[in-house]
């Protein structure tokens, strides 16, 4: 069950970096690099992950940039993780959607029961390989990009602590609080990341359309902001980047995810995401005979999919909150 090919309408502005130099890693796990502060000064264990989806290049570019610039934490521990490498290594600009995953979506396998089960797939095996490391992470920053040219956004999860974490990063402008997908648990929602009683934090960033050049700049910029906010790097790294004054963040709460129920799902038009539908009751799509209707005024469409397959999330619906 490889990821299906779908037609691509977007230019491929990015090049997948050669990550073969990281194949051995330095932890015993392939493509995982961990660095402790020189003086063992205490601090959080921060993990920045890329290519959870194999065709999302910006995170791989950001990690490669950090590794080439010899990032070392001033305190605590920093782990840089290329996640679904098997899929990433299959990336082909002529069929760029096909390398999202090998057997199944890596970002839906993070239920502990599934990880503990005897089921097997390329992605489950890799998740099991990364799990002991993830269990020690205090702050997870998971870099992604999107099928459509939606505005970039932070996905802060459903708990208030995720929103607080997003405020620290300051960019991009949109922060979306959501519960994830019916199809399975995301890495950002694994275990204590989704536990309000735990101090562990996670954020998923969607840096823009998969292959737009600006997505890799945002991936680097936000990673640096995270590290700077925790005192893990000094300001000299930020001087390497051009920065605009951030706009005040806008917060959206996802109220529901529309999961596709039939093999005949279609939207009424090509939505890119971020559209705000003014009127309650507007039909935005059909799942066979069933109309998909906006449940309230000013309903924001979050990441409408082009993969209109049964069981997938078609779109998430949200409202602006203060
Ligand atoms: Zn992704």
What small molecules does this complex bind? zinc ion
Cα(first) to Cα(last) distance is 42 Å
Write down how many β-strands occur, each being a DSSP E stretch of 2 or more residues.
Answer: 14
Number of domains: 2
Helix content: 10-25%
Q: What is the fold-level CATH name, i.e. the topology of the largest domain?
A: Aminopeptidase
Output the helix-strand order. EEHEHHHEEHEEHEEEEEEE
The CATH architecture of the largest domain would be 3-Layer(aba) Sandwich
> Could you tell me the radius of gyration in angstroms?
19 Å
Classified by CATH, the class of the largest domain is Alpha Beta
What is the residue-averaged pLDDT?
94
Report the sheet with the most strands, covering strand number, pairing sense and barrel closure.
11 strands, mixed
Query: Runs with pLDDT <50, length 5+?
Result: none
What's the short version?
With 322 residues, the chain is α/β, with parallel strands linked by helices.
What does this structure look like?
- The chain has six helices and 14 strands.
- Helix 1 packs across helix 6.
- It folds into two domains: 20-240, Aminopeptidase, CATH 3.40.630; 256-321, OB fold (Dihydrolipoamide Acetyltransferase, E2P).
- 19% of the residues lie in helices and 24% in strands.
- The longest helix is centred in the C-terminal third of the chain and has 17 residues, at 213-229.
- It has helices at residues 57-68, 85-88, 112-116, 122-134, 160-169, 213-229, and strands at 32-36, 45-50, 77-82, 139-146, 153-155, 174-177, 201-209, 250-259, 265-267, 276-277, 283-287, 290-293, 299-302, 313-321.
- It has an eleven-stranded mixed beta sheet. Strands 9-11-12 form a three-stranded antiparallel beta sheet, with no helix packed on it.
- With 322 residues, it is an alpha/beta fold.
- Bound molecules: zinc ion (ZN).
């Amino acid at each position: 069950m490889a990821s299906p090919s779908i037609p691509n309408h977007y230019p491929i502005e990015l090049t997948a970096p050669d990550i073969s130099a990281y194949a051995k890693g330095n932890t015993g796990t392939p493509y995982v690099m961990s660095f402790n502060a020189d003086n063992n000064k205490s601090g959080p264990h921060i993990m920045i992950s890329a290519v959870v989806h194999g065709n999302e290049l910006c995170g791989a570019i950001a990690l490669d940039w950090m590794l080439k610039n010899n990032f070392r934490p001033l305190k605590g521990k920093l782990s840089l993780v290329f996640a679904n490498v098997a899929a990433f290594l299959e990336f082909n600009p002529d069929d760029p959607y096909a390398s999202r995953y090998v057997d199944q979506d890596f970002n839906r396998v993070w239920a502990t029961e599934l990880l503990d089960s005897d089921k097997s797939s390329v992605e489950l095996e890799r998740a099991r390989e990364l799990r002991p490391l993830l269990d020690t992470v205090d702050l997870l920053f998971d870099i992604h990009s999107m099928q459509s040219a939606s505005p970039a956004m932070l996905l802060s999860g459903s708990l208030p602590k995720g929103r607080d974490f997003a405020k620290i990063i300051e960019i991009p402008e949109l922060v979306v609080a959501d519960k994830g997908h019916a199809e399975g648990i995301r890495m950002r929602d694994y275990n204590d990341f989704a536990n309000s009683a735990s101090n562990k934090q996670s954020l998923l960033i969607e840096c823009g359309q998969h292959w737009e050049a600006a997505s890799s700049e945002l991936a680097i910029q936000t990673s640096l902001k995270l590290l700077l906010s925790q005192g893990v790097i000094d300001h000299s790294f930020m001087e390497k980047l051009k920065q605009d004054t951030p706009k005040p963040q806008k917060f959206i709460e996802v109220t529901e995810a529309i999961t596709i129920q039939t093999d005949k799902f279609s939207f009424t038009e090509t939505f890119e995401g971020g559209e705000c539908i003014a009127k309650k009751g507007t039909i935005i799509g059909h799942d066979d005979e069933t109309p998909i209707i906006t449940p309230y005024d000013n309903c924001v469409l979050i990441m409408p999919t082009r993969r209109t397959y049964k069981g997938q999330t078609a779109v998430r619906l949200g409202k602006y909150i203060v």
